[in-house]
Every structure is written in C-alpha cells, then in structure tokens.
Amino acid sequence: MKNSFKIISLIILFFITSYNSNAAEKVEYLKTDWSFKGLFGKFDRGSLQRGYQVYTEVCSSCHSMKYLSYRNLAEKGGPEFTEEQAKAIAASFEVLDGPNADGEMFTRPGKLSDKFVMPYENVKAAQAANGGAYPPDMSVLAKARSGGANYIYSLLQGYEDPPIGVILDEGVHYNKYMYGNKIKMANQLSDGLVEYADGTGATVEQMSKDVTTFLMWTAEPHLEARHQMGFKAIVYLIILTILVYFSMKRIWSRVETEI
Amino acid sequence: MSDHEYTPKSKFGKWFNDRLPLLSLASHLTDYPTPKNLNYWWTFGGILSFCLITQIVTGLTLAMHYIAHADMAFESVEHIMRDVNYGWLIRYIHANGASMFFLAVYIHIFRSLFYGSYKSPREIIWIIGIIIYLLMMAAAFMGYVLPWGQMSFWGATVITNLFSAIPLVGEGIVTWLWGGYSVDNPTLTRFFTLHYLIPFLILGLVVLHIWALHIPGNNNPVGIDIKKPSKDTVPFHPYIVIKDGFALLMFMIVFAFFVFYAPNILGHADNYIEANPLVTPAHIVPEWYLLPFYAILRSIPDKLLGVVAMLSAILILAALPWLDTSKIRSAVFRPLYKQFYWILVADVLILGYVGAMPAEGLFLLIARVATAYYFLHFLVILPVLGFKEKTLPIPLSITEPVLGGSPNLATVKNKESLNH
Amino acid sequence: MADKKTNRRDFLFTATYAVGAVGVGATVWPMIDQMNPDASVKALASTEVDVSSVTPGKTITVLWRGKPVFIRRRTKEEINEARAVKMDELKHPEKDEDRAKDPEWLVMLGVCTHLGCVPLNDKGDYDGWFCPCHGSHYDISGRIRKGPAPLNMEVPKYEFVNANTIKIG
Which DSSP string do the residues of B95-146 spell out, in sequence order? Predict the structure, then answer.
C-alpha cells in the first residue's frame, strides 16, 4: 500500500511541476531574485514606490489600471505612501464626476476613494490610438500571463533585432520573450528615462524590476497578509494534527488490534 | 433503522425525540459499527463532506458580493479580492476548494475500485456516487464560467457547443442553453443560479449515499462481510471520528498550502483576462479535474461520437458492479486485477496529461490509445478477469489474519457464501 | 497510577478540544467579517460638500452614506427663534448651540427619527420640517416638537474644511 501511495504522489508531483511550462517553445526567462517569492515573501517598499513612478511616467499613458483606487497606495502591504502623499497623487489627476445640478458631467481633482484614471475612455478608443492593438489593463496582468513576474521582467528587456528571415509588419516589433515574438508595443525603457525620487540609478534592468514588482502588487495587493496568515494557519494545523494524532493513538489503544 | 432502541436522557429529549427522532438518529450515527481494519483510504468520505460544506459556506459568502452580469462579473470578483474583508481568502478557498474536492473524490472513487466497494450489495451507493460525481462536474464547470475570464467564456462556448452534436434537436438545445445566439449574459445568469442550486442537490444525494451505506455497513480492505456489531467493529464515535479528523487535518494542510502559497497554480492564467468574444485563447483547457474526459472527447474525430465517448466514459462506471464479474471484492486477494488496476490509474493520469496538450501529433495518438484502453479495461478486461483470475484465499475474519500471526490463512471452502 | 493516566488523557483531550476551538473561531471570523462594510464602502464614509451657493434661508439636501443630509443656512431671525425655545418645551431637550456650532449652519440627517421617512422642508407648525408619514413636526433647529418621533434629527460629525466646504463624516 505504502509503495503505491509513493508512486502515485510522485506521478502527480511530476505532472504538476511540468504542467505549467510553456506548451510551445521553451524560452528561459531572465531571472532575478524577487523579494515577494517564497513562503515569507514580502514586497520591497522602495521598489514598489519606484515601480509606481515608472508606471505613472512611462506606462500609464496607454495602460489603464482600472481596478486600483488611489487609497490602495497608502494601504498596508503596498507601496505604503503616507495618506498625504496618496491624497496628493490622487489630486494630481482629473476625475470625471456628475451629473451636477444642471445635468452635466464635470471633472474634479481625484480623491483617495477614486479609481485610477484611465488613459482612454474605452477599449475601442485605446485600440484606435494604438494601431489597432489594445494595451492591456495592468491591474492583474502579472497573474494573466503564465510566465508571471519573470515574463514581464524579461519582456521589458527583451527587445532586439529580428533574426534573419523574420519579416515584421509596419508597427510590429520583435521581442525575444513575447509569446510569438511579435509585439505591437515598441521598446519603452532606456537608461535614465525616469529620475527616481529616491535617487536609485534608473537602468533598464532596474526599471524593469521595479515596475514588475509594482505590477505584482497591483495583481496581489494582499500577498503579504496571505503569506503571514498562511504561516500561522499551517503552524496551527500542524500543532492540532499532532494533538489529534496522539488523541487518536490514545483512543485506539483501547482496541486490542493493530491493523 | 433497525437498531437498538435509544432512550433520551432528558424529559425534553424524550418529548422531542418522540416527535422527530433526531436524537435516535444521532445515537445511531454515534454507535454505527464500523470495521476496525479500515485504512486511510476510507477517510476520504469524511473529507468529502468537509469539502462540500466548505464550498457551500464560502460560496454563500462570495454570492453576497458577486454580481452575475457579463458587464460586472469580472469586476465584482476583483472587488471581492481587493475590498471585501477577507474576500481574497474566501475566493482562494473556494477556487482551490474545488480542486481539493475533486482530488478527494478521485481518491474516494479509486478506493472503491481497488477494494470492490461498488460490488453487491453496495451497487446503489455506487450509482448515487456516480450521480454525485456528475453533479460535481456540472457545478464546477458552471462555477468556472462565473468570473467571466477568457477561459470562463471560451470553455463555456466549447462545452455548450457539444450539444449541437445531437441529431435534429442539437442546435435548438444549444440556443436554449445559451438563451441567445452565443454564450452571453443570459447564459451567465442562469449558470449562476444553477451553480448555486446544485450543491444542495449534492447534499441531498450525500444523505441518501450515507443512508444506503448504513444498511450493509462499510466495506473493508479485506473485502469480506463482517457481522456488526462484533469484535471486528468499533463504534463510529470516537474511533472513526478521531481517525477521520486526523486525516482531515492532513488534508487541510495540503489545502492550506495551495490557498496561501500557490493559489493560482492549479488555475489558468488566461482566466485573469476579461472575456473577449472576438479573441480565442491559443489553448482552451478545462480545469485539471476534467482533463481526462476532455482528452477522450478530443480523441474521437467525429463530433457526436466524441461526445458519446466522453459521456460513456463516465456512465460506464455506473455499470461497473455488473461488468466486474469477480466474486472476490478486494484487490488484495486479486493479484491480476491489482496489476490492471494500476494500469488503469496510469491510463487515467496519461489521459489527464494529454488532455492539457494540443490535440495533435504524438499527444493525439497517445490520447486515442489511452481512450481505447480505458474502455477495454471496463468492457473486456474486467468481465474476463472475473472468470479467469486465480484469486488468493480470503480470510475468515478481519482479525484472524492479524491476530493469528501465522501465514496460513484458513481458507473458505465455498467462496460464494461469503460475498452474499 | 490510574489517576495519573486519567489526568494525562484528560489533558490531551482537553488540549485538543481547546486548540480545535481556537481554529474554529479563527475560521468563523472571516465569514462574519466579510459582511461588514468593505474597504470601498469605508472609503466613501465621508463626503465633502460645496456650500458656496447656499444663500441664507435656503436648504440643500446631499447624499451621505446613502442617506439625505439637510444643510440649511439660517437667517438671523431663524437663529434667534431656535435659541429662544425653552428646554421644558422639548420632548428631546437639546440646546440649539449644541446642535449648530456655527449658528448660521444647520447640518443634520434628513431622516425622521420615528420610522425613517424624509421630512419636508419649510413645512409644519414650527417653521422647520414636517414628516408626512405620521405627522411629526420639527422646528428650525431640527428638534421634534409635535408628533410621534421620539428624538431630534441627528446631527452627524461634520466640519468646515474651508469657508465654502463642509466635510461630513
């Protein structure tokens, strides 16, 4: 019995670990150490704040972040801007509100309770402004790509000249890590593009890492709480399991047989 | 229940019990004689009950915040994940709970296959179980549609389109299912309603499942009939309660690992993309627990026959008590059957694997071979084995092989009399 | 000897029950808490209102936490009338000074304290509000004067963040 159980578990383990890999060509993504990976993973606040800066200054002109609210920037587990900073960030955007007493829509400075302002009114407008391609919303982008953080990190650094024989249409670029290698977004990052508020050198690699960390947080804002609760839950379960195990042994000792 | 008469201790208890014998029922469940040689493969029934309750409770709380409308569903799920207190936790428990539910049900089913729990007199328990399994698949399928991601939408499109394979009325049925000319809002709202309903149907069937079980009593690893109560049995409480509790806790540790540390690993990234009727994902894949049947479906080139094959693969299980002609229940004493059992397990795992792969080339070939073998196992191998197999001698009682200590098991002259 | 064994067994079982109970509680709490106001609702817990267009004698109604709030800019006569009322005339004695820190501005929940209808402005026998549902009359300080309502209209937490803006909540 025990042997068959072991065999089954190994088979299942094999399938689970190999299941997630790309079905098509195997591309090795660029790797870096992510502070949020692992059982005790946490977000690096500085990286999150820098990543927010990259998002705002580079990406937000095309990519929306529609499920985030400005108050999220001040909440625990995220970039943890102060409430004043978050309020100021919100106020720097014009938000559509209304109708007013005259029945008209109007704009006003953003509040903490507002959702992130979108660069385009709707998907069609976004497509029209970007050669027919829709720049995807980034709220859960890190979870919407099977390569996850490594994929986004690699893609941002993966622009290169197409290999010989590959013809690109107008407005299409070659990217080593993009699924299918053809991408409508041009390379966005270059060294020194952003001047980080905390003075960190803004290399392409640094910006890629920071904005990917930020996107991981936008996709999983409760990651840290989840890890912390998970640790407590599993420790608790192990303790209770041990107690129940010994209770079980105690109870079953009344029966004179051991099967 | 023809048990001993239970007399409640308190006056109120007596008064109530005379009108609605709940206390007698509780006493029956507590004293229920259970074979004392049950191994851990028998704990999955209790684990499944836990899974059902978990899904119902988390589902109820999610339904307080979820909006079943095509324009708002995805956003409402994000609202749950971000704003609702502990929403992320409840959602991840519900999503991973579905996987854990199926993991447990597969182990439970394969336990039955190994130990012959489906055999007489437990055929009805087994058939009710198959119906529960079918309802589970329906509930899981519809539940997966609700977040309205790309896989939700396209999985719904592919599977509902299957019904068009039915001759004459197929197209009409599909339109009727959709409530329109494609998967759209009417489909979503009705799937939500049915997804909410089915768990309670399952709950009712589980009651019948357990009731039917309590007539003959549990099977056991040795597969022989035992008298109950006797030296061979223990009362359900506390012996089985504590053992089921221990197994449940181990199960919950695995569950917790998924929920807290890998909550999306069993899912598909494409379902975090909002449903888009104009863009089909490169690979449409159902959740892992439906993969073997997906493989069978795709292995047949003809649309209708593919659907028939897929359904037959499940329904054939209902005929199992009659397909397996062996008089011996437990594979412990059926060395040849045991080998074929493990081949079947491998076959199902292989089907699951190719179900996740594109249906072409080597994968398609393997799927076809594995599908053929699956049916071969049930339709040919099992009936033949029953007659041809030389089984090992079965013990007289369950304590005997252990207490005796000697390798010489008393054999039974007439095997027929034991398995009545 | 038997005693010692029993004690150890009791301790084990008691400890198991106790630890188990903690787990049950920890599991039940999120199920209950998820019904509490979520983060997006709590973010709208306060509202800012621009009152620059409210002239003396005018009342505006705004929505706060899903309920109507009356904001009235009172005239000098109305303030005097409110202040002149004696406490023993009131079912729910409250000084006007306690209800309107800046006497010019009356801010209160426009919800009748009887059964929750919205009273009508500039109606009733006391120069204030009248609730048509069951005939409660409120005065120019929003206090119940006649009718079945037990309490004065509630004054929420509010403050002037600048000369033209009131933040409620």
Answer: HHHHHHHHHHHHHHHHHHHHHTTTSTT-HHHHHHHHHHHHHHHHHHHHHHHT
What is the complex's ipTM, to 2 decimals?
Answer: 0.90
CB B101 within 8 A of CB B66: no
- Candidates B61, B84, B246: best to mutate against C (most CBs of C within 10 A) is B84
**Structure pTM?**
0.90
Q: Where are the beta strands (DSSP E) in B175-320?
A: 233-235
pLDDT digits (tens, 9 = 90+) for B312-363: 999 999 999 999 999 999 999 999 999 999 999 999 999 999 999 999 999 9
Could you give the count of Cα atoms lying within 13 Å of C93 in the half-sphere of its Cβ?
Answer: 4
Between A and B, how many residue pairs show a Cβ–Cβ distance under 8 A? Answer: 108
Burial of A31 (0-12, 13-18, 19+ CB in 10 A): exposed
Q: Which among C92, C114, C134, C137 is annotated as catalytic?
A: C134
| Cα–Cα distance measured from residue B189 to residue B389, given in angstroms and rounded to the nearest whole number | 53
Distances (CA, A) of A245 to A237, A249, C28: 12, 6, 24
Q: C16 and A247: CB-CB below 8 Å?
A: yes
Q: Do C34 and B79 touch (CB under 8 A)?
A: no
Q: How many CA atoms lie within 13 A of B338 on its CB side?
A: 12
SS (H, E, C) B149-180: EHHHHHHHHHHHHHHHHCCCCHHHHHHHHHCC
Q: Do A244 and C26 lie within an 8 Å CB cutoff? A: no
